[in-house]
């Protein structure tokens, strides 16, 4: 009788033969492609040990998809080196919805190269090559990968590789090194790569994949290093799941805010101004103004006080706040001014560095401490649409979603410890209510808690985290806890919103800052006359006006609800002599604040209708002789439906009602 060991499978204790692998345990379940033992993901080839707690990992789970995609990245790299033998390997991790692999090649990859690589990958998949893990010493790894300079660099970094290069954690950890061999059925090693794993059992377990595009990427993200060729791909557990994803991508491309911004004449990024710096055209300016005005009204109703701060400040301010030390690489270079020299050119008075501000919080803190504050003034809610500037690398700038100059709808609330929980609950309710007013309704949240390395008193951290979680519970908002993922100085809530095509966007943030008031020695006089330190809550509702505008533009595919539409109504005359009649109709609408254009161009009526539809105008009011005689209009909607002979006053009332209720049509 063979030796038995005890294991726990999905919470149930079992006895199995010693030497049993995870594959032997789950072999009948085709969807299982890996296992989790004691919290660690492992290959199905892993031999089980007595006392192991093991759970199956199915290919359609988040972990399963990541393993599938990383395995597909290995197949891609093998195909590249088979077709391009001189290619040197960079890094190939799984990412959201796919994977990539970086290569050092003499010539950039072409679309035709991607087609050839896909065919080669299909051959490798059909060969049913096994992914075989083996541990190696540092010296052995160097010997085996002597021709791969980037891999050798990762081996040298080892435990620090994850911090030194994005995606390197998929290859090198702080423990032993491992290499994965791709082994053909006869035992021949077809290819190998430095990798932590785990992987699929065989290449045949890859059901569906597609290579998407090529981009340039600097090694380890540093512009001083060689630029590699990055091939992006996607892989899914079924062909149907992949097609659904590709359909979503096509819809997302149709909704791309950069494309819609140009088509609808909303904004642009002139090369003469610089990357990541938008200019707003009149129509885009209208939408932005309406968004900001409504937000201002809601903030006034919520007890906020408006402030304004400069765009530039002495570097000493951000040294004191800590931003200069931690975020210097993300700031624009300083402007050095105010130096004075004598007639001989000798420095008489040293100058100072001024920085474009990357955030508003230090300045708001100075407003708080500009005079003595009493507990009776708290909570003090300061609010600003503050323009900030951050030097994003050109490779990550992406329209309004990731720009170099943007306006934060920034609020900082100063309160007493006793007020913290109630204020956070009220703030979260305010945030969700305002987002709903803009037509967003599906929310989830993340609570990021104290990291291993933190500053401040642990009692303050516990108090802040408990208050944040209580606010989430009161709001009835689904949330998950990101253990240890808070900033070194503060825990926070991040609110995510789901858009019309199912994408999740991180929007609003509530952060309890435990350090800035101390750094600036901000105090208030308590009821007992003592001087106390306030709690400071950072609250960005939209994140930035620009990014939120881009999200809304894509959410609505350019067809804004009437209250936000740049042009709410277009009057379309059947003939030129009907223009004065429509001018009178427009005057009635404008008296209610409705934005109206009359199309008096030489185009035929049908062309005018098509133009209004392309511009996604919510309402078209068409008038001819019969309409003018009856004091009516033909009422045409954005979806093409139409009501004829509608009395003008009824048409005006319907439009005004929809705009006031802020609903979509």
Structure commentary:
An 8-stranded mixed beta sheet has the order 16-22-23-30-27-26-24-25, sandwiched between helices. A 5-stranded mixed beta sheet has the order 2-1-5-3-4. The chain contains 20 helices and 35 strands. The longest helix is centred in the first third of the chain and has 22 residues, at 62-83. The termini are far apart. It is globular. The mean pLDDT is 92.
At a glance:
By secondary structure, the protein is α+β, with helices and mostly antiparallel strands. 33% of the residues lie in helices and 28% in strands.
**Outline type:** globular
Q: Would you identify the regions where 5 or more consecutive residues have pLDDT less than 50?
A: none
Strand-residue fraction?
A: 25-35%
Query: What Rg is obtained from the alpha carbons, in whole angstroms?
Result: 30 Å
> What is the mean predicted local confidence, pLDDT?
92
Number of helices: 20
Largest sheet: 8 strands, mixed
Report how far the terminal alpha carbons are from each other.
74 Å
Structural class, from secondary structure content? alpha+beta
Count of individual beta strands: 35
Q: Strand order, biggest sheet?
A: 16-22-23-30-27-26-24-25
């Amino acid at each position: 009788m063979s030796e038995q060991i005890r294991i726990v499978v999905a919470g149930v204790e079992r006895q199995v033969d010693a030497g049993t692998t995870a594959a032997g345990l789950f072999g009948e379940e085709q969807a299982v492609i890996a296992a989790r033992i004691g919290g660690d993901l492992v290959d199905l080839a892993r031999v089980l040990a007595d006392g192991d707690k093991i759970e199956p990992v199915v290919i359609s789970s988040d972990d399963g998809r990541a393993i599938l995609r990383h395995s597909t990245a290995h197949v891609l790299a093998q195909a590249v080196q088979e077709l391009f033998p001189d290619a040197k390997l960079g890094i190939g991790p799984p990412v959201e919805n796919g994977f990539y692999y970086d290569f050092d090649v003499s010539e950039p990859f072409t679309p035709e190269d991607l087609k050839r690589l896909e065919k080669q990958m299909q051959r490798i998949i059909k060969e049913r090559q096994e992914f075989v893990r083996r541990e190696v010493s540092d010296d052995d790894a160097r010997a085996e990968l002597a021709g791969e300079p980037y891999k050798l660099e990762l081996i040298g970094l080892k435990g620090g590789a994850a911090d030194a290069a994005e995606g390197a954690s998929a290859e090198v950890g702080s423990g032993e090194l491992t290499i994965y061999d791709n082994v053909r059925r006869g035992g021949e090693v077809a290819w190998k790569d430095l990798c932590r794993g785990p992987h699929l059992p065989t290449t045949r377990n890859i059901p569906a994949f597609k290579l998407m595009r090529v981009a340039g990427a600097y090694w380890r993200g540093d512009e001083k290093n060689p630029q590699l060729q990055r091939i992006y791909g996607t892989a899914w557990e079924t062909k149907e799941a992949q097609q659904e994803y590709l359909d979503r991508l096509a819809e997302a491309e149709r909704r791309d805010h950069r494309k819609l911004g140009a088509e609808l004449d909303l904004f642009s990024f002139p090369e003469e101004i610089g990357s990541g710096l938008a200019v707003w055209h009149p129509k885009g300016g209208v939408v932005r103004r309406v968004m900001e005005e409504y937000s201002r009204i809601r903030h006034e109703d919520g007890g906020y006080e408006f402030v304004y701060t400069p765009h530039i400040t002495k570097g000493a301010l951000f040294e004191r706040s800590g931003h200069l030390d931690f975020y210097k690489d993300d700031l624009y270079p300083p402007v050095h001014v105010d130096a004075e020299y004598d007639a001989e050119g000798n420095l008489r008075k040293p100058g100072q560095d001024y920085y474009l501000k990357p955030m508003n919080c230090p300045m708001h803190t100075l407003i708080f401490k500009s005079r003595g504050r009493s507990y009776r003034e708290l909570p003090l809610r300061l609010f600003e649409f503050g323009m900030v500037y951050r030097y994003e690398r050109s490779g990550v700038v992406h329209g309004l979603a990731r720009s170099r100059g943007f306006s934060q709808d920034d609020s900082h609330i100063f309160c007493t410890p006793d007020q913290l929980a109630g204020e956070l609950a009220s703030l979260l309710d305010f945030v969700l209510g305002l987002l709903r007013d803009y037509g967003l309704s599906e929310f989830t949240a993340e609570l990021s808690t104290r990291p291993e390395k933190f500053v401040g008193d642990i009692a303050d951290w516990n108090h802040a985290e408990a208050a944040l979680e209580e606010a989430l519970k009161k709001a009835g908002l689904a949330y998950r806890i990101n253990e240890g993922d808070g900033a070194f100085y503060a825990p926070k809530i991040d609110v995510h919103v789901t858009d019309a095509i199912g994408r999740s966007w991180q929007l609003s943030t509530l952060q309890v800052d435990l350090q800035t008031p101390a750094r600036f020695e901000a105090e208030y006089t308590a009821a007992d006359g003592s001087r106390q330190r306030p709690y400071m809550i950072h609250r960005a509702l939209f994140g930035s006006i620009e990014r939120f505008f881009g999200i809304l533009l894509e959410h609505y595919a350019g067809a804004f609800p009437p209250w936000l539409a740049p042009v709410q109504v277009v009057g379309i005359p059947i003939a030129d002599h009907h223009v004065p009649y429509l001018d009178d109709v427009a005057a009635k609408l404008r008296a209610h604040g409705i934005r109206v254009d009359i199309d008096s161009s030489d185009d035929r009526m049908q062309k005018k209708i098509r133009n209004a539809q392309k511009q996604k105008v919510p309402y078209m009011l068409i008038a001819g002789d019969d309409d003018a005689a009856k004091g009516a209009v033909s009422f045409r909607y954005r979806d093409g439906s139409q009501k004829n002979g509608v009395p003008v006053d009824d048409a005006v009332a319907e439009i005004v009602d929809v705009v006031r209720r802020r609903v979509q049509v």
